[in-house]
Amino acid sequence: MMPEKVVITDVGPRDGLQNQPKILSLEQRISLVHAIAATGVPQIEVGSFVSPKAVPAMAGTDQVFAALQSADFVTPTIALIPNMKGYELARAAGAKTVCMVLYASDGMAEKNAVMSMAEAELITLEILKLAKHDGIAVIATIAVAFECPFDGPTDPTVVEAIAAKFIAAGADELVLADTIGAAHPQQVRELTAALVATHGAEKLGCHFHDTRAMGLANVYAAVESGIRRFDSSIAGLGGCPFAPGASGNVATDDIAMMLEQMGFETGIDLEKLMQASDLAQTLTGTAPGGRSKAWLQGHLAKKAS
Ligand code: COA
Ligand code: ZN
Fold it and tell me: Could you point out which of 38, 87, 249, 301 has its C-alpha 20 to 30 Å from the C-alpha of 146?
């Protein structure tokens, strides 16, 4: 039997670097993207088109895109956008897939993008129309899908309604983001099972942060519901500068190892993954690295000798 595939998107060069005290140079950002691409990960979120005043670490994402427009760089890339201006900049930079942020709370919409939930929805509908015409794929990510640092726990029916609306509107993927890493596996299982029952799993993805050490457990709960698309971050980098308490994403190091061990196919070469993880740690000085890393490195060294 063919192993079942899980599609991992490494969001380290975006979610990971946006929250770092140290701002990497364009060359460093590009070298990290290349190292992640070398692992075989199916998709990489390489940066965001946001105000450089709001997020200085993401200034120059157009140049990152320019550097990746070469025939030997074949990994599909994603640009995160918060608004219409972001869409226009991403399109001008040659992005083929954008990830637009929706919100399950007004508090987060206001703090992150200076708009309401309803405004973000209207802009996203507009972007979906333009993107169809422009031949650009749109991932709609629902921020604070489980809990908001400003407005408290999220009502799952709010998330279900947004998901239904944007799947119907033609979003290519719909991602539930636990922006501050507050969700627990039971909650994840219930919400993802309900969404999979209504919409099927094909377009659904999850984005977990490991703030309370439940990132991997939440991935497992979503896998059990049938979800086969996950965001994760090289060496566990990550966090939203506008969401107090948010810490790193679930590490690609850990999620790849767990899924491979469970018999799923991720396309990721674990040895190359360790090299990319080392680079992320060297460049930032703060990336925690996956919790499986010490074991995995020892295991790979034993296999090689
Ligand atoms: N990319 C680059 N610049 C942008 C932009 C974008 N997507 N959207 C707006 N701007 C610029 C405007 O041109 C304007 O520039 P100026 O001051 O030089 O004239 C400035 O940002 C303010 O524009 P305005 O429309 O008034 O935006 P705002 O004050 O309402 O701020 C955002 C909204 C979205 C621009 C800003 O909060 C932002 O970029 N946040 C980033 C959110 C983020 O990355 N979160 C983490 C990932 S989810
Ligand atoms: Zn995130």
Answer: 87
